[in-house]
Design goal:
Elements lengths: L1 H7 L5 H9 L4 E5 L3 H10 L3 E4 L3 H4 L11 H14 L4 E5 L9 H13 L4 E5 L5 H9 L4 E6 L5 H4 L9 H16 L4 E5 L3 H10 L4 E4 L7 E4 L1 H5 L22 H18 L22
Parallel strand pairs: 1-2, 1-8, 2-3, 3-4, 4-5, 5-6, 6-7, 7-8
Length: 290
């Protein structure tokens, strides 16, 4: 029955997302970095899947996302796009893949589209508006990213909450409007108070999604490793599990327990048992013996 439901489900497109906003329906949005997790999210009915550069920390164990590059990102984007047949897949443009020139931004964004993504995401406001415009003019859907932007944490003073005053919210709205005018089809707001999310959503026409931006936005994003309880990265300095990262399962503990049981059975000789053996072929007997 699940397979039949999945087969009937229509592909989520930009028109789907715009319709959801118009009808005040919230979009469910999650990161995925490989084929199996993308396929499971898609089968569950996920609206949007982000091939996030957050995999630098969740998958590769880096201290931040700055080590990520196009050579790493594109194979993951390709795998996720093959797994998420119905979800709207967004490729996260890594550090220095779009900042240097319009041409480089368009060429790198096109690699995500060729890999099967429906859109790309890049961080920044007014400073990256020309890049967003160039990608938009090339026919590429672009999601903006404002608030806490991990690729710019040094300039922001670390992983800190953004837009906590009325003046800061006004500046955030101005940055959001600049990238909306440049052609962004949506914006992701990260780590801002609910008041900021509400103000940006009210002032802009495009969908506004949040990851730690309160309930007034058009959808919610979570990092899959936070959601599933599988994050094993470093928690040093001022990098901590975010307040908004709700854990829906403890799959990391289940995985570790499965490894322990396997180790114990191998050490004790319990595994493999006869049910896991292959049998020899029985030799053929002469006809007279049959």
């Amino acid at each position: 029955m699940e397979i039949e439901k999945s087969a009937e489900r229509k592909k989520v497109t930009i028109n789907t997302l715009l319709r959801m906003k118009a009808e005040h329906k919230k979009a469910a949005y999650v990161t995925a970095y490989d084929f199996p997790s993308a396929r499971r999210a898609d089968r569950a009915g996920m609206d949007i899947v982000l091939v996030g550069d957050s995999m630098g920390m969740t998958v590769y164990g880096f201290d931040n996302t700055l080590q990520m590059n196009m050579d790493i990102m594109i194979p993951h984007a390709d795998a996720v796009a093959r797994g998420a047949k119905h979800s709207f897949v967004i490729g996260d443009m890594p550090y220095m893949s779009y900042q240097l020139s319009d041409l480089e931004a368009v060429l790198n964004a096109s690699k995500f589209i060729r890999a099967g993504c429906s859109a790309v995401k890049c961080e920044g406001g007014k400073a990256v508006a020309p890049r967003i415009r160039a990608m938009h003019n090339a026919g590429i859907l672009v999601q903006g990213h404002l608030g806490l932007t991990p690729q710019s944490t040094a300039a922001l003073g670390g992983y800190t909450i953004q837009a906590r005053t009325d003046d800061a919210i006004s500046r955030l709205v101005g940055e959001a409007k600049a990238i909306e005018e440049a052609g962004a089809f949506s914006i992701l707001l990260e780590a801002v108070p609910p008041e900021a999310g509400k103000k940006v959503s009210a002032e802009l026409k495009i969908p506004i999604y949040g990851i730690g931006a309160g309930p007034y936005v058009d959808g919610q994003l979570l990092i899959c490793h936070d959601l599933l309880g599988t994050y094993e990265g470093k928690l040093s300095g001022n990098i901590k599990i975010p307040k908004f990262a709700k854990k829906y399962a403890e799959l990391g503990k289940l995985e570790e327990e499965a490894f322990r049981r396997y180790i114990e059975e191998v050490h004790s000789g319990e595994f493999p048992s006869s049910e896991h053996f292959y049998k020899m072929e029985e030799p053929e007997r002469p006809c007279s013996e049959r």
